[in-house]
Amino acid sequence: ESVGIAKALAAKNGYELDSNQELFGLGVANIFGSFFSAYPATGSFSRSAVNHESGAKTGLHVFISYLILINRISLQLTSLQCQFLLCALAAIVVSAVIGLVDYEEAMFLWRVDKKDFFLWTVTSATTLFFGIEIGVLVGVGFSLAFVIHESANPHIAVLGRLPGTTVYRNTQQYPEAYTYNGIVIVRIDAPIYFANTSFIKDRLREYEITVDQCTSKRGPEVERISFVILEMAPITYVDSSAVQALKELYQEYKSRNIQIAIANPNRDVLLTLSNSGFIDLVGKEWCFVRVHDAVQVCLQYVQSSTPSPKTPQVSLHNSTSFSERLNERLNRKDDLTASEMESGERERLLSTDADPMVQPLLSRKSHK
């Protein structure tokens, strides 16, 4: 309660508040007061509001209030006069507290974020009817609930390539961005941990279907999704549950001949995935510095698996499986260390008959 009213007054008067110092001062006051049978001291919401509206700037107002109180008591007021003083005090407190209600902030929250406005309304109503202590607890509880909900349901975007660039952005934010047939590019904008793994896996399965039905697509015509590229730049942390979920997702994709590719993980995430064996499971050759690099390699495999119009259609059921053909080509590549993957030094994976429109990856012999 003390810190809450102090922050409100600090915001109104334009000065900074050190909450730790505030609580330290209250603790010292209560420790010394305990040697003299004093009541526990804290900041009062109503008295602070009255003092603020009265223009009090220092602690001297306490002594002045005591002098006035002693003077009134010495006059031996009648019961009628005491009741009148209580009504006057109530009117003063109500008038002072109303001045602390920030209606402009409420309208701002309504325009910006409805959840914050809901939180403001619930906290204010609870404080009004049940007291500031319960109001603060309810406000903190709802805030934690919102944080947990947002963390357990993170934002996930399907990326597409902006025309004329190598930049990949959210297709909903940039409708002109296009995707490629047989390839899904997904960006997860949150850390992955035990609370959101199920949600992420469900959304990835959903995107596999919705992106396949998208009309703004480029590249050779294919019948199904063959690659899922995970843009991991926004992911700052993964835990053991997340690693296990990624392994299960990899096995599920593998059973349907879908290859996972990883693009731009930060150092901590890359080390975690490497130490857990997920990088070895996916293959180091499927870890890329840029999303564009991953797309070019996946496009090369999509093109190589698509028959030309002059050749007869070959079914995957009566020929070597798609994953086996991928492994056969990847077995000829050298393994890369985690530091090499971060530095961007990748071996050229494109074949000699690659489409000239497909941009090559960074060569191992390129200048640093």
TrEMBL record:
The keyword Transmembrane helix is assigned to this record: yes
Subcellular location(s) per record: Membrane
Any one of the GO CC terms: membrane
Any single biological process term in GO: transmembrane transport
Keywords assigned: Membrane, Transmembrane, Transmembrane helix, Transport
Principal place of residence: membrane
Residues that span the membrane, as ranges: 23-46, 58-77, 83-101, 117-148
PROSITE patterns to which the protein is assigned, alphabetical: STAS (PS50801)
Start and end residues of each stretch annotated as Disordered: 331-368
Keyword Transmembrane helix: yes
UniProt domain STAS: residue ranges: 173-298
Membrane topology: Multi-pass membrane protein
PANTHER family per UniProt: SULFATE TRANSPORTER (PTHR11814)
Protein name in UniProt: STAS domain-containing protein
